[in-house]
Amino acid sequence: MEYQKVIQEIKRGQIQPLYFVYGSEQYLRQSFIDQLLNQLDDSTELDISRFDYDEVSMDLILDEAEMFSFFSDYRVIIVNQFELLTTTPNSKISDQEIKRLMAYIDDPNPATYLIFIQHQDKIDKRKKISKAFQKKVMQVDVTPLEEKEVKYFIQTYIKEANIDMTREALTELLQRVGYQLTQTMTELNKLATYAKSGQPITVQTVRALVPRTLESDVFELVNALIAKQVDKATQIYQDLLLLKNEPIALHALIVSQFRIIIQTKILAQNGFQAASIAEQLAIHPYRVQLALQTGKSMSLKSLSTFYQSLVKADLQMKTGEGPKEIHFYMLLIRLIQMA
Length: 339
What we know:
Layout: H1 3-11, E1 18-22, H2 26-41, E2 46-52, H3 58-66, E3 74-80, H4 95-106, E4 112-118, H5 128-136, E5 138-141, H6 147-160, H7 167-176, H8 181-195, H9 203-209, H10 214-226, H11 230-242, H12 247-269, H13 274-281, H14 285-295, H15 300-318, H16 326-337
Helix pairs in contact: 1-2, 3-4, 4-5, 7-9, 10-11, 10-12, 12-14, 12-15, 13-14, 15-16
């Protein structure tokens, strides 16, 4: 079920005995737990137990779930790192434990709220246990949001929190953190503290208080390369070196960004939509949108040709062929000379 719908049900007191929270969006994951515990805490004193599934057995978890609390009316059991439903489970489970888990799902203890938390985004729906979870356990989707969803979420939060922030400042913030919800909320909380002084949050405020991520700087660098903006690309690269970034590490990020641009272009030409591309490549939807937009400036053939030059330069840098920094400028010349 969609995250917001689950939260609305919890606020209305419609709390389920079993939840399966899946996805890598840390802020949504923690907000769900906080909202659930706050709602339960309003009605009763809580007996809370937390486990990491890669450290305990399913039998132990179910023993705890079936047991009634001596201290309160209800127990809350939170099982982290529950990657059992993925294609790459982190722990094994016996046939007997699966049978017992399926039986518990059919008839959960009414005095226990059991929450399984998977940190990966994908579920292997072919598994029998996955099908059982889908039918009988409340699903909570906390996978990364798309660009427009992140923007709407933040706009709603700003309005409800009565934060004085200009529209331009919000756009600048989202671009600086790459539309990553968890990081956006972290930076927004810092900005909100500043706003308590009575000053509105402007573009200048965001630029002064919110650092750009290395990934966003590299993306700007790649954009400048593709647009053949020599001065801009050179300035960004030199600034990144001044910030003590290693040339080999920077080059690896440039290679990675070009690879994503090529992959998204190929998938788009084969009829894949942005959301499907993000799922195929296991990257944030915002990165897909940026890659698709950037890839329009060069043909697939030109991108592939330059990518081969990047790979060759990567090997040369790692084998100590010439000064590490010089390879970037040689690649820039090569790109300019391309038709």
